[in-house]
Amino acid sequence: MALVLLLFLLAVSVSADEDAFIGVNIGTDVSDMPSPTQVVALLKAQNIHHVRLYDTDRAILLALANTGISVTVSVPNDQLLGIGQSNATAANWITRNVIAHVPATNITAIAVGSEVLTTLPNAAPVLVSALKFIHSALVASNLDRQIKVSTTHSSSIILDSFPPSQAFFNRSWDPVMVPLLKFLQSSGSYLMLNVYPYYDYIQSNDVIPLDYALFRPLPPNKEAVDHNTLLHYTNVFDAVVDAAYFAMSYLNFTNVPIVVTESGWPSKGDSSERDATLDNANTYNSNLIRHVLNNTGTPKHPGVAVSTYIYELYNEDLRSGPVSEKNWGLFNANGVPVYILHLTGAGTVLANDTTNQTFCVAKNNADPKMLQAGLDWACGPGKVDCSPLLQGQPCYDPDNVVAHATYAFNAYFQQMAKSPGTCDFKGVAIITTTNPSHGSCIFPGSGGKNGTRVNETSLAPSSNTTSSGCLSEYYYGGGSFRSSVILGLLALIAVFL
Ligand SMILES: *[C@@H]1O[C@H](CO)[C@@H](O)[C@H](O)[C@H]1NC(C)=O
Ligand SMILES: *[C@@H]1O[C@H](CO)[C@@H](O)[C@H](O)[C@H]1NC(C)=O
Ligand SMILES: *[C@@H]1O[C@H](CO)[C@@H](O)[C@H](O)[C@H]1NC(C)=O
Ligand SMILES: *[C@@H]1O[C@H](CO)[C@@H](O)[C@H](O)[C@H]1NC(C)=O
Ligand SMILES: *[C@@H]1O[C@H](CO)[C@@H](O)[C@H](O)[C@H]1NC(C)=O
Ligand SMILES: *[C@@H]1O[C@H](CO)[C@@H](O)[C@H](O)[C@H]1NC(C)=O
Ligand SMILES: *[C@@H]1O[C@H](CO)[C@@H](O)[C@H](O)[C@H]1NC(C)=O
Ligand SMILES: *[C@@H]1O[C@H](CO)[C@@H](O)[C@H](O)[C@H]1NC(C)=O
Ligand SMILES: *[C@@H]1O[C@H](CO)[C@@H](O)[C@H](O)[C@H]1NC(C)=O
Ligand SMILES: *[C@@H]1O[C@H](CO)[C@@H](O)[C@H](O)[C@H]1NC(C)=O
């Protein structure tokens, strides 16, 4: 009786908890993977209370015991066929990988397979059976109310995703999606969706504005509008989540919540991946976290929590593919942050910094002649002290116009107390929260803090976004951009996703 009551209370508190949370994915393709104890220490230090694992590694599940951290575990794709074909195999899996760890380890969800429809379509016919068998095994152990069962999807199964109101799941998958949604609905579970505005953006060949992908403010006339619903979209993330809501309602499922099981931005890429930068990764993830924790919801469902797991905790250096593939992490394997997120509020998830530093830097790829002109102006009429740029002085190296203009632009910006319009230089300057200091070259505005090799990116505390008048002027100065182009392109992109 007491147990039943306890389970009842647990179930009630889970469903009553409507605040969105931020979690992180923990991939382990890391050559010097930290020990489970170190991983958990990092999670605790960063106030991360929700994680998703790609398997059910025993050592990490043991290390997570008695931490209260809520854990989504996964049935790897290579075990899916076996589980989907045999309820006994499913029951065994639950015994070995779940019952062995609960309640000490707070397992709250099981992702049965990862992007199966798009990566392992031949297992699709057994997918729903696999979820049902896993669920039955949980029911048999009275764990079904505290542990939800679902499966992750690539957002590429959503077609015609803009405008969101016209989105639908690729109809080839209706024979799977309909019973799947029925199962999610009847078991009180949720749709697990991976949302990657980074890929939407790069596949759009620059037609989707970077600002729209990064949650930066858009001028109202540049927002994407769904002409059926008249809802305004200010970022790609919301548009994709709403497309999923609409795709579900197209199949008559209107009450299945969405949890975003992966989203992020790579901080480094090869020469063909020019938008995989520290600044973009920091901006995306900082804005994403703020957006989610604010319980903003989406235009279709304002205020409805869209909890999100960031991809990912560590840079996975062993992953194959382009350079970006190894650089989605928030942390290096040694626990040093790749960059410090622009979040305030000590004690909240991933938030350490409490200051508001911003800097003015030369825009990458800006016309060198314009940079030189701006540099000359700043060091001349602008009255900036440019002596640190002289040969033999701390900021001489690297001796190129981008680096020198960056120093001078920033010095001017700080000298003008960062007043609006002072980081423009005819559009070749941009405000950033990443401290450009390096070695002994300390930029004005960095409070004497130093950029070191190890911590080179971890010195940019700010509570604010990197948006500014000059930024949007840079992106929109041409005035040729039209939201109808975005709409069309988004529709096209959906085909490639
Ligand atoms: C397990 O995680 C859930 C979801 O975050 C939370 O509500 C619950 O309190 C946690 N349980 C324990 C024992 O910490
Ligand atoms: C598996 O299914 C069979 C027949 O459908 C049933 O008799 C058996 O009890 C099930 N086993 C488990 C472990 O659920
Ligand atoms: C829909 O899914 C089928 C089966 O995977 C695939 O062959 C087809 O290309 C998809 N359609 C689109 C438009 O992506
Ligand atoms: C959804 O419901 C409507 C109205 O009840 C019905 O006409 C339609 O066929 C349903 N669609 C699906 C995919 O079940
Ligand atoms: C937070 O949510 C409110 C509405 O609930 C919204 O007006 C505001 O813009 C949101 N802030 C952020 C940073 O998303
Ligand atoms: C963030 O704060 C925690 C707790 O105060 C601390 O242990 C951790 O080292 C800090 N991280 C950074 C990058 O400063
Ligand atoms: C950060 O900025 C806010 C608003 O601009 C200000 O109230 C706060 O004092 C600043 N914090 C620090 C540490 O400078
Ligand atoms: C900054 O770091 C360099 C070494 O990278 C060091 O020589 C210099 O003294 C440091 N400056 C400050 C202000 O800490
Ligand atoms: C990097 O930053 C952390 C936290 O601020 C600090 O403890 C550590 O000493 C720094 N490392 C170096 C090499 O400066
Ligand atoms: C950003 O800073 C401005 C003032 O500089 C402030 O009004 C605004 O609330 C800040 N936004 C966030 C999300 O902190």
Secondary structure topology:
Blueprint: H1 2-16, E1 22-26, H2 36-45, E2 50-53, H3 58-63, E3 70-75, H4 80-85, H5 87-99, E4 106-114, H6 116-119, H7 124-140, E5 148-154, E6 158-159, E7 168-169, H8 174-186, E8 191-194, H9 197-203, H10 210-213, E9 224-225, E10 232-233, H11 236-250, E11 258-263, H12 278-293, E12 308-310, E13 359-362, H13 368-379, H14 401-415, E14 429-432, H15 469-476, H16 483-496
Parallel strand pairs: 1-2, 1-12, 2-3, 3-4, 4-5, 5-8, 8-11, 11-12
Antiparallel strand pairs: 6-7, 9-10, 13-14
Helix pairs in contact: 5-7, 7-8, 13-14
Residues 87-88, 91, 136 line the site of one 2-acetamido-2-deoxy-beta-D-glucopyranose.
Q: What descriptive keywords fit this protein?
A:
497 residues; Methane Monooxygenase Hydroxylase, Chain G, domain 1; 2 domains; 16 helices; 14 strands; disordered C terminus; binds 2-acetamido-2-deoxy-beta-D-glucopyranose
